[in-house]
Structure formats: structure tokens, C-alpha cells
Amino acid sequence: MINYLPKLDTLLWSLKSREVFASIHGLKHILAERYSKISQYIGNGKTYRPHDIKLTDRQEHDPFMGWKNYFTIVLDGEVIGYCGE
Questions:
Q1: Across residues 29-50, what is the average pLDDT?
Q2: Cβ count near 61 (within 10 Å)
Q3: I need a surface site. Which of 14, 19, 45, 52 has the fewest CB within 10 A?
Q4: 39, 48 in Cβ contact below 8 A?
Q5: Is the pLDDT of residue 62 over 80?
Q6: Domain boundaries along the sequence of the chain
Q7: Residues 33, 49: contact at Cβ < 8 Å?
Q8: Which of 12, 2, 6 lies closest to 82, judged by CA?
Q9: Quick one: the chain helix, strand, coil %, rounded to 5?
Q10: What is the pLDDT of residue 68?
């Protein structure tokens, strides 16, 4: 199971928006779909694919959430969230 925490304005909203996915591929697919819809809505017209979602800054353990294999999720050079097991 992959835990996903979006990067939002406040930690409270991020924690309330936490989701669980079955796999990294499923997480990337959903995020690409969501950010494509947002891009279309605001007029940028970008379409994202799952391979556009990058996982960086791997850490063995996240001290805050207690997740293992903790990653930062990046899209177009901006951090959009965090994930871990």
C-alpha cells in the first residue's frame, strides 16, 4: 500500500487529503489525470502522463508520518506531494 500526502497550503489540509493507493503506478496514473484536468481547466492545456510524475529524494524512513521508503513527488519541477509505504 502506498500512502500519498499532497503538498497543500497547510499541514492540516494535507493530512485531511491523505490517500492510499495499491501501487506506485496507480498513484502516478491518478495524479497525471488530476493535474491534466487542472491544467485544462486553468487554460494551460498541458496533458500529463504517468512518466511525467517523478519520485525524488528517497529516504529510508519519514520521522513525521513513520512511512518507509519515503519519496518527494515532483511534476514540472514543483513538489506536489509525498508518498511512502
A1: 92
A2: 11
A3: 45
A4: yes
A5: no
A6: 2-84
A7: no
A8: 6
A9: 35, 35, 30
A10: 84
